[in-house]
């Protein structure tokens, strides 16, 4: 099991897209240069929505550095994931 990094946002079902967007903006404002957003299974579409809202708000202030698509085994099932690495541009 991998450790959650301080600049990693793991998307779940409990929070709204707007809440995640505000969390990421807060991380950038606190000095983080990079933030990773990860969603598994049904949360993949939420990751895309979060990214699109960030771009709408920050415009050229955020850059998509890397996209990682894959799958991992959880509870004996293979689950797809999407990981986006974002960089703050000043």
TrEMBL record:
It is found in: Cytoplasm; Chromosome. Keywords: Chromosome, Cytoplasm, DNA condensation, DNA-binding. GO terms for molecular function: double-stranded DNA binding; RNA binding. Gene3D superfamilies: Alba-like domain. It holds the Pfam family Alba. Residues 7-71 form the DNA/RNA-binding protein Alba-like domain. Binds double-stranded DNA tightly but without sequence specificity. Involved in DNA compaction. HAMAP family: AlbA. Belongs to the histone-like Alba family. This is DNA/RNA-binding protein Alba. It comes from Stygiolobus azoricus.
